Amino acid sequence: MCDFEMPFSFNEWTIGPKLYSWILKLIPGDGVILELGSGEGSGLLSKHFKVFSVENFKEYMIYGTNYIYAPCPEGSNWYDPQLIKDRIPDKYDCLLIDGPRGGENRLGILDNLSLFNLDDPVVFVDDINRDHELRIFNEIIGKTRRNSIIIKDEYGEIKKKFGIICDTI
Amino acid sequence: MVSINIPFFNHLAFLKRCIENIEKYSNYPYELVLIDDGSSDQASSEYAKAKADIYIRHELNEGIAKSRADGVMASSGPYICAMDCDVIVMPNWLSVLVKEFDRLKVIEEFRVYILGSMLATNVDQFIYNPEWYSKQYGVVDVPQISTSCIIFEKTLVGLIGNFDPLLYNNLSDLDFSRRVTTSKIIAGNPKVAVTPKVISYHHGFADSKTGVVYNDPNESTRAVDLLTSNPISHQRYLRSLVLIYERWGHVIANPERIALEIIKLSKIFLESDKWEFLKIDFKGVV
Fold first, then answer.
1. C-alpha to C-alpha distance for A54 and A88, rounded to whole angstroms
2. This prediction's pTM
3. Could you list the residue range(s) of the whole structural domain that residue A82 is in?
């Protein structure tokens, strides 16, 4: 849990309000979330769930979750898989793909899908209005053949979409 | 806000016309929930993804009831309008439907929990003239209703349960509405009704009249047409009929008709060589 209170407002860089409400809807109250990429939203989620955050920048490790520090190795824009492999929890109810920063950098997960359980947890992919994130979403569906949902998350000037891969609603 | 739920399986032309009419003629806040029940036609899926506020994709064809149930669960509500993908709506339909539903749910003698639009059964009758229809018909209290264009509150599923995914095609509509009209739990003499103040046109009627049959093997909206050619559909429909007979045989008008249908379909099932692998489930039925 986050041990300090900070004002929270949804913005372009956080998860959106609908994504937040869908996580609350689909993940049980004592659930475990594994997220790629940490931010203000992580602190919000940690109020409800046990959150493990894979993060490559130390300056973002301030939101009170269980951090897995995994800087990108030289020549790579994705987390060091060796540092993730042994430190992620054995079981998790939710995988939230929202990092690393920079849309193209996220594509690195496609070479490392075997690190994650994609068959049982609910998988959220944020920002699938963008091509790279949409590709990640579609490739995970293609690999798992699980059902999916795409939701518009629009508030103020911000127009985003996120995707959910799950078996039941 | 109304969550308009539309399951579909291919048939881009129908879906497009349905959504274009909704966009053009809806004068009440709504979100569009499109449930793609395993379409093999990528154009339908891509169109729906672009149009939907919430797009649900079943990788396999899971049937209309599961699609409707998922749509309800995903909806923001508080009102759900469950619609078929081959329905055409007319100007101001949504505000009138909501207004009429709000009116009928607070009448002292009864409370309407599900309200349907009146369906025009052929395109020649489909003149948007609610005054004419209202003179011909009042609000019709019905024991069961087709889910071609109906409205209900999302909280209703908390009271009577959701659409039952075990039931195939329109039998899930029958079951859902019968749970309202026979409920001993929900308050206020519960009714299901149809209003003549909203008219919609449903292609399904025209198709069944003209005998037009689609070629998709697991058709969501017209599976009944394909029963004799598709063993999986056949099995699911037969199983649904048995369930409906068990659940509602004591209240429906012609239980004998369902019993005869079960016997007829079971015989087809048992006599067919090519469906050998499925026979075991139904040997006890005939």
1. 8
2. 0.87
3. 17-129+140-166
